[in-house]
Amino acid sequence: MFGILFASHSNRSSCWITARGRKISRKSIGILLGIYFLSALAFTLFRVFSNPFFVRLDAPTLGEAIGGALLLFVGAGLLPVLGWALYRLRPQYAWRTLASWAFIGIALAYFIEVGARLERDIQVTMLSKNLVLSGSKLSCLDSEHASKFRSPGDKLLAFLEAL
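The structure assignment produced for this chain is given below.
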């Protein structure tokens, strides 16, 4: 698994990091962190665009997407980086940090998506209930409004029929 992620063997300087027999550089770690952030950004953009109430991509919507990506990126990486700090950020332990960062990020993204879908379902349900209620209120108001324009003779006939 890590051989695919950390495949670079051309330089044998002291900045190389071993991970289960594979060697990776600090540059590879940086690239992998960039991929993690771009994945978080893609996930939050998907979440924003899949919202049924999405209208257009404006500054607040873009800010929500970038802020969500930062929250996912930092939130998933906080505990692994703190654990790595216990090893004084030694490069030979970076693969553990990166692997746990990825797993926590995937789990966090899953739970964010489940929560967002639940919230969207509630919003759609509330909107449909509000539309039904407003429709019944409108029909009641329409009948009252129509009764204002009835002729006095129609009102007299309705009164006599009621007797």
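Interim note for the steering committee: The chain has one domain: 2-116. The beta strands are 17-19, 22-24.
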